[in-house]
Amino acid sequence: MKYNKTITLKDGRTCCLRNGEEKDGAAVLTNFNLTHQETDNLLTYPDENTFDEKQEAEFLKSMEESENEIEILAVIDGVVAGTAGFHSMGNKYKMKHRADFGIAIAKEYWGLGIGKALTKACIWCAREAGYTQLELEVVAENESAVAMYEKAGFVAFGRNPRGFNSRQTGYQEVVSMRLEL
User: Fold this and answer.
1) Residues 55, 61, 64, 68: is their CA dihedral positive or negative?
2) Quick check: 166 and 172 in contact, CB under 8 A?
3) How confident is the model over 147-162, as pLDDT tens digits?
4) DSSP readout, 119-177?
5) What is the pTM of this model?
6) CATH of 4-135, one of 3.90.70.10, 3.40.50.720, 3.40.50.12780, 3.40.630.30
């Protein structure tokens, strides 16, 4: 699956939204470690990352070659500012209509419209891939993310008061959301 679009950010800079490629392995790994260090709202901590640069490059290559999964980069002035993608929740008949969405943006780029643009890009790609439902989990206290997802059409379908166990704050409530495509 292929995606490539240039957008103008709220501060006037341009941002290229495009497939992650094998050559982006090091930059994406750096972004992953940064984003997972900067916020407690993501699934893992940097020290839990099991990928090295080569494995990240191989993952990006497999996503670029996939017909039903994608990893989109937000690139500003040659720097990977964020990533988003979706992955199949299974290839069995009862599950193949569902995909799991994830997104992470470096803190220095928050508030510029990148999250909205990446979310919109992934929604478009998920439809193109034939999914009829896109799902995500978000920390309930991350009100700006919840609001962004709701504006994109996602609706909450459940809450888990002990969804994450944060090293900093203890249990975090997680909201399960879905979007019918």
Assistant:
1) negative
2) yes
3) 999 999 999 999 999 9
4) HHHHHHHHHHTT-SEEEEEEETT-HHHHHHHHHTT-EEEEEEEEEEEETTTEEEEEEEE
5) 0.96
6) 3.40.630.30
